[in-house]
């Protein structure tokens, strides 16, 4: 039940032979989330050997083509593969009209329901919540309405200390869940067994923030404070700061400042302009400010660990 | 000025790691035509080293996703690459609404005009005509309105026989075009030089027919009679004839019957169901009826020659 991030594509604007536009596959607490879906994402998912059928929630940051043009094909393939499970799609207002127009004209008859969660708030919202995971929007500053997404594991159950528990015959298996949940046990003679004695600390809960596309934007700092892994766009080197500002993007140096100020565990850069053949230039620029910076390693699952 | 066909993708329904959905790049008499545009076509064009910028005419057979989901991304990339030349898009009614909805919602502001030629006739029409090439629709029988396309080179100029022409000083360079066009020359003394003496036969004009997707359909025979190369879908082996009929497709055996009855030069099969790992089974089935059958060779230009 570890959390793994598989970056499927990370280039900006135009797909090339060797790199795909933005898409990520996040496996957290046995949920499979897809984040953005540029053209070709379904083939990237196959290359990554990700299980299509487990994706029940897709989060789209914004409606520029390099972040969403793979959606119609992916959903059409779900149908051809016999999917019946409802699919939740989160994204800016307009995503429903676009997809439903495409499905109507291409006669993509679905055997499953697509449930749209259209976003328009400029404030962070909790948009997904179950017993183990929650997801929040991270309002970004791009040329078009855009959200990043924050994925958080909720606090986990404490681990049973069986060596200790087995000393008390009257503690039955059916009582274990209460102990995992942190409750003390009152024995039949009235003696109170403190939970700390019966359990060990839970596994840490990890968090992941996806921030693309955006200008340098300090207003996200409180939302992403302390996340274990931050993926932040860095379309340009800082020498093209004016270009970044004009086009609604961030420089590698700026992404590192955000990571440092937010005390994140690790920064992964992405959404690089096609002008850069040597991506290490971007990584090295960021490392001047925030040493725990990495380039994305496409199709290779990254374990997200508590820092 | 030879004619080359580059098949970019030929699988049906779902893109896989090793094969792309339908798209073809046809270079005929210095025109560059794109036929169908499944998801990922722009990357296939890059792999084939085809010159994007020369594509001014796109012909879409039908509005199923595996034949058109690559269009929004390709057109968005044209914009990002600075295109200014108008782009002509031919396809079924609905293609304009679909693309314009996508472009509005994704804020794909184009620096060039997209000129839509929406098709709805069930009869063959000439839809493109210039001094060297003409294109006709081939009405097909699929689950949704669908056309194949017939591309024909017009008769070419005769070749000058310079050894003969140079014997007559009074024939000036400015008169060559008339000779190429087949005219006789009247010398100043009234002597008539027959054109056949001054020229050699023109290079043959070639033709190419694209037929996908369709049920077995003999009504196309007169339209494709004698074409040099026929690409015809063969989604299934003939043992799945009922499945082919139900889903609106053709078997390899049937495609071969069409090729034989239409006296074509060469048959290329395509649009294979993903159930077939060994495509030679389909080729071998067709060769029983029509020996000049080939499997598509993706990304490798095929010279279309007169037969």
Question: What would you note in describing this structure?
Answer:
- Two copies of one chain form a homodimer.
- The first copy, chain A, has 307 residues and is of the alpha/beta class.
- Chain A folds into two domains: 254 residues, Metallo-beta-lactamase, Chain A (4-Layer Sandwich), CATH 3.60.15; 42 residues, no CATH class.
- Chain A is 24% helix and 27% strand.
- Chain A contains eleven helices and 18 strands.
- A seven-stranded mixed sheet of chain A has the order 6-5-4-3-2-1-18. Chain A has a seven-stranded mixed sheet with strand order 7-8-9-14-15-16-17, covered by helices on one side.
- In chain A, strand 3, helix 1 and strand 4 form a beta-alpha-beta unit.
- The radius of gyration of chain A is 22 Å and the shape is globular.
- Chain A starts with a strand and ends with a strand.
- The mean pLDDT of chain A is 96.
- Chains A and B meet through helix 1, helix 2, helix 3 and helix 4 of A and helix 1, helix 2, helix 3 and helix 4 of B.
